[in-house]
Write a structure and sequence with these properties.
Blueprint: E1 14-21, H1 27-37, H2 58-63, E2 71-77, H3 79-83, E3 89-96, H4 104-113, E4 116-122, H5 129-140, E5 145-150, H6 159-170, E6 174-176, E7 178-181, E8 189-192, E9 197-200, E10 212-214, H7 222-237, H8 241-248, H9 255-267, E11 272-276, H10 286-295, H11 299-302, E12 304-308, E13 315-319, E14 327-336, E15 340-349, E16 351-353, E17 357-360, E18 365-368, E19 371-375, E20 380-383, E21 385-387, E22 391-395, E23 405-407, E24 414-415, E25 425-431, H12 434-450, E26 455-459, E27 464-469, H13 472-486, E28 490-492, E29 496-497, E30 500-503, E31 507-515, E32 522-532, E33 539-543, H14 552-568, E34 579-587, H15 595-611, E35 615-629, H16 633-642, E36 646-653, E37 656-664, H17 671-678, E38 684-694, H18 697-705
Parallel strand pairs: 1-3, 1-4, 4-5, 5-11, 6-11, 33-34
Antiparallel strand pairs: 2-3, 7-8, 8-9, 9-10, 12-13, 12-24, 14-15, 14-23, 15-22, 16-21, 17-18, 17-23, 19-20, 19-22, 25-27, 25-28, 25-29, 26-27, 30-35, 31-32, 32-34, 35-37, 35-38, 36-37
Helix pairs in contact: 12-13, 14-15
The chain binds guanosine-5'-diphosphate.
Length: about 725
C-alpha cells in the first residue's frame, strides 16, 4: 500500500491508542474488528479459532491471550465526514496491551507510549480485579480513556450495572453516551444520547461493516433516553464554565460545543465516555472509532515530554513537534521472522531518517538505523522518515533495549524511565546438550532484551542458569518460547520463591587475608561497617578511607568483593538487599597486596559483620483476591489463614463474595487447584506482587532444618 497516510503536517490527525482490558473481556476480538473496519485486515479472524491478526505469535494463539504488544498502524475516517463526503483520514497507531497481570512490563511499557486508551469491559462481569489493576496503571501514566462495554449479547449482560461498577470499583466518573437497544440475544444496537439517533446492526453479516442510522429513538425508550441525555449534558456542562452558565440559563449548548467540552474533559481525566456493543456479533464498534477521533487526545494535546540532560543532569523538555530536536522512546524489542530485530519506537519530537545515526542517550552509544517500517496488521511498509507523534519499527539497532531513549546526539535527553516490578519467582534451567547450551545463551539474551522483568543469573556453585520473573505464567511462557523459537531443549526445575536476605542492625567486621610464608605473599585487610536501609533501597557502597590507609585501586577491589558477597548471600544463599556497606579502615602491603587479596578480605569482613547484624530473610507477599459464591467463603478464609494470610477484608457483589488478602508467595504453590477443589470449581482468584516482608523466625528455622531445602534462588 502506498504511503498515503497523514504525515508531519497532520499531528492532530494521529491517535496513538491502546486497547486495555481484563483477560477474556474481548480485547482480541475488538482489536480484530477494529483492524477490519479500518481496512487493514482482509478476513475477519476469530479468536476462538486462533487466527487473529494481532496474536501472531504461536504462544498467544494457543493460550488465546495476548502476550506481546505489537504496534499496528491503521486509518479511519469519521462517519460524519464520510457522510459529508469529506476525506479526512486519521491515522490510528494501535498498541496492543496484554490483559494478564504476569505481563505487567508489557502493560506498563505500552501505556507509556499511548496517548489514549479504549478500556474493554465484559457487560456481564463488570469491572474485575485485573481491570482495576490495569486501570490504575493507566491512571499512573495519565492515559485518557473511554470504555467499551462489550458482550452486550451475553446472557446476564447489563450495561448500566457495568457503568455502576466503574464508579464503585474504579472511582471514575463515567459519562453514559449510549443506551442499548434490546438486551442479551435481542441486542441490536444503541441510541446515541447526544444526537438521539439509533445505530442498528440489524443484518450483522460476517463482516458487520454495515449498520443503519435512524433519526429516531424507539418509542419505548424515549423517556429513558431523555432522562440519561439530560444527565449527560449536565455532566458535560459541569466541566466547562461557559457551558455551565448556558446550562443554568436553561439553554442547551450546541452539539459541537458539547463535543468540544467533552473532549477537553476526557483529556483532562474528568470524564470517561461509556459505549456499548458486542464485538463478537459485529455490533457497536464503529462509533467507538469515531469517539477515538472525537474524544481521545492527539500528540498535539499532550504538548511536551519531560526528561533530563544526561550530561548536566538538568531537567529538559521537548514539545511534541517536528521542529524540535529528535527524541523518542524504544518501547519494545521484537524479533520479526522476516526482517530480524525490530525496535518499536515512539517519536516524540523531531524526525528520524532511514540510514542515519541515532544517539541512545540511556546507554551513551550511537546506533545506525537501517530501515524504518510502519507495521500494519498483516503487512509492513518501508518509509524513509518518521515524524513526531508517530510509532514505527526501526531495523538495525544493536544495543538498544526496552525503555531506552533515542535522540539527536547534539541535544541529548533521557526521558523518564519506565519502572518495572522486581522478579519474585525463579526456576533453574539446564540445557540438555552443548548445542542447547549455546542456543540457550542466545535465547536468553533476546528474551531479556524484550522483557525487563525477566532476568537471568548463573548460580556459580551449581553452574545452573536461573531465570526469574514476576509470575509463574510468565516463566512458563518464556520456557515455551525458548523451545519453539530457539529450539532449546532443557530440563526445567520447579518454580522457587525469590527470597532475599537483609540485616536488622548496624555491625562492623574485620577481614584479614594475609599469607606471607615463602614466595610472593598475599596481603588484604579491611574493616567494614554494614547498616540496614529502608525497604527497596538496594545496596550502597561508601568509601570512608582516610589518609590513604588503603590505596584507591584496592578500595575498588573491596567494593567488588562486597558486591560478590551481596549477590551470593551469606545466610541461605539469597542476595542481600537494603544494606549500606562502608569501608572505613584497613591496611596494605607495598609488595604483597593484590586485587585478589582485598576481594577475599572484603568478603571475610562482610561475613564477619553480618554475623553480628541480625541477618534475616525477606519473602514476596502477594495481594490476593478470591471471588467465590458465599457458601465457600468460610472454607476459603480458613484455608488462607492456614497459609499465613492476612485477611484484609471482604466485599459483597450480587451473588458473590470477594475476599481480599495478603499472602506469602511461598504458601501459594498449587493454589489454583486447591481453590478449585474447595469451591467445586466456582471460585476464581487473582494475585499480584505487593511487597517484601520478613519471614517469621519459625519458618526460617524450618527452612534451615529441611535437608531437602535447595532453595538457592538468586
Ligand atoms: P481477550 O482475552 O480480552 O483478548 O478476549 P477475546 O477477544 O479473546 O475474547 C474472550 C472470549 O469472549 C472469546 O471466547 C470470545 O469469542 C468471547 N467474546 C468476545 N467478544 C464477545 C461478545 O461481544 N459477545 C460474546 N458473547 N462473547 C464475546
Amino acid at each position: 500500500m502506498a504511503d498515503t497516510a497523514p504525515r508531519k503536517q497532520d499531528l492532530a490527525k494521529i491517535r496513538n491508542i491502546g486497547i486495555i482490558a481484563h483477560i477474556d473481556a474481548g480485547k482480541t476480538t475488538t482489536t480484530e474488528r477494529i483492524l477490519y473496519y479500518t481496512g487493514r485486515t482482509y478476513k475477519i479472524g476469530d479468536i476462538d479459532e486462533g487466527n487473529t491478526q494481532m496474536d501472531w505469535m504461536e504462544q498467544e494463539k494457543e493460550r488465546g491471550i495476548t502476550i506481546v504488544s505489537a504496534a499496528t498502524t491503521t486509518f479511519w475516517t469519521h462517519s460524519d465526514d464520510k457522510a459529508a463526503g469529506k476525506d479526512e483520514t486519521y491515522r490510528f497507531n494501535i498498541i496492543d496491551t496484554p490483559g494478564h497481570v504476569d505481563f505487567t512490563a508489557e502493560v506498563e511499557r505500552s501505556l507509556r507510549v499511548l496517548d489514549g486508551g479504549i478500556t474493554v469491559l465484559d457487560a456481564e462481569e463488570g469491572v474485575q480485579a485485573q481491570s482495576e489493576t490495569v486501570w490504575r496503571q493507566a491512571d499512573k501514566y495519565k492515559v485518557p480513556r473511554l470504555c467499551f462495554v462489550n458482550k452486550m449479547d451475553k446472557l446476564g449482560a447489563n450495561f448500566l450495572a457495568t457503568v455502576d461498577s466503574v464508579v464503585e470499583k474504579l472511582g471514575a466518573n463515567p459519562a453514559i453516551m449510549v443506551l442499548p437497544i434490546g438486551a442479551e440475544n435481542t441486542y441490536t444496537g444503541n441510541v446515541d444520547l447526544l444526537t438521539r439517533k439509533s445505530y442498528l446492526w440489524l443484518h450483522a453479516d460476517e463482516t458487520g461493516a454495515k449498520y443503519e442510522v435512524r433519526d429516531e429513538v424507539p418509542e419505548e425508550m424515549k423517556e429513558e433516553v431523555e432522562k440519561y441525555r439530560a444527565k449527560l449534558i449536565e455532566q458535560i456542562c459541569e466541566t466547562d464554565d461557559v457551558l455551565l452558565e448556558k446550562f443554568f440559563a436553561g439553554e442547551e449548548p450546541s452539539l459541537p460545543e458539547l463535543k468540544a467540552a467533552l473532549r477537553k474533559a476526557v483529556i483532562g481525566y474528568k470524564l470517561v465516555p461509556m459505549f456499548a456493543g458486542a464485538s463478537l456479533r459485529h455490533k457497536g464498534v464503529q462509533p467507538v472509532l469515531d469517539a477515538v477521533i472525537d474524544y481521545l487526545p492527539s500528540p498535539v494535546d499532550l504538548d511536551h515530554v519531560k526528561g533530563e540532560n544526561p550530561k548536566t543532569g538538568e531537567a529538559e523538555e521537548r514539545h511534541l513537534t517536528t521542529e524540535e530536536p529528535l527524541c523518542g522512546l524504544a518501547f519494545k524489542i521484537q524479533v520479526d521472522p522476516h526482517v530480524g530485530k525490530l525496535t518499536y519506537f515512539r517519536v516524540y519530537s523531531g524526525k528520524v531518517t532511514a540510514g542515519s545515526y541515532i544517539y541512545n542517550s540511556t546507554k551513551g552509544v550511537t546506533e545506525r538505523i537501517g530501515r524504518i517500517l510502519l507495521m500494519h496488521a498483516n503487512d509492513r511498509e518501508e518509509i524513509k522518515e518518521a515524524f513526531a507523534g508517530e510509532i514505527v519499527a526501526l531495523v538495525g539497532l544493536k544495543d538498544t533495549v526496552t525503555g531506552d531513549t533515542l535522540c539527536d546526539d547534539k541535544s541529548p535527553i533521557v526521558l523518564e524511565k519506565i519502572t518495572f516490578p522486581e522478579p519474585v519467582i525463579s526456576l533453574a534451567i539446564e540445557p540438555k546438550t552443548k548445542t542447547d547450551q549455546e542456543r540457550l545463551g542466545m535465547a536468553l539474551k533476546r528474551l531479556t532484551e524484550e522483557d525487563p522483568t525477566f532476568q537471568v543469573k548463573t548460580n556459580h556453585e551449581t553452574n545452573q542458569t536461573i531465570i526469574s520473573g514476576i509470575g509463574e505464567l510468565q516463566l512458563e511462557v518464556m520456557v515455551d518460547r525458548m523451545k519453539r523459537e530457539f529450539n532449546v531443549l532443557a530440563n526445567v526445575g520447579a518454580p522457587q520463591v525469590a527470597y532475599k536476605e537483609t540485616i536488622k542492625r548496624l555491625a562492623e567486621g574485620e577481614g584479614k587475608y594475609i599469607r606471607q610464608s615463602g614466595g610472593k605473599g598475599q596481603y588484604g585487610h579491611c574493616w567494614l561497617r554494614i547498616e540496614p536501609q529502608p525497604r527497596g533501597e538496594g545496596f550502597k557502597f561508601v568509601n570512608a578511607i582516610k589518609g590513604g590507609a588503603i590505596p584507591a585501586e584496592f578500595v575498588s577491589s573491596i567494593e567488588k568483593g562486597v558486591k560478590e558477597s551481596v549477590e551470593n548471600g551469606v545466610f541461605l544463599g539469597y542476595p542481600v538487599v537494603d544494606v549500606k556497606v562502608t569501608v572505613y579502615d584497613g591496611s596494605f602491603h607495598e609488595v604483597d597486596s593484590s586485587d585478589m587479596a582485598f576481594k577475599i578480605a572484603a568478603s571475610m569482613a562482610f561475613q564477619a559483620a553480618t554475623k553480628k547484624a541480625d541477618i534475616t530473610l525477606l519473602e514476596p507477599i502477594m495481594k490476593v483476591e478470591v471471588t467465590t459464591p458465599k457458601e465457600y467463603m468460610g472454607d476459603i478464609i480458613g484455608d488462607l489463614s492456614s497459609k499465613r494470610a492476612q485477611i484484609m477484608g471482604t466485599q459483597d457483589r450480587s451473588n458473590a463474595t470477594i475476599i481480599l488478602a495478603q499472602v506469602p508467595l511461598a504458601e501459594l504453590s498449587g493454589y489454583a487447584t486447591a481453590l478449585r477443589s474447595m469451591s467445586k470449581g466456582r471460585a476464581s482468584y487473582y494475585m499480584e506482587a505487593s511487597h517484601y516482608d520478613e519471614v517469621p523466625s519459625n519458618i526460617i528455622a524450618q527452612m534451615q532444618s529441611k535437608s531437602t531445602f535447595t532453595g538457592r534462588v538468586e
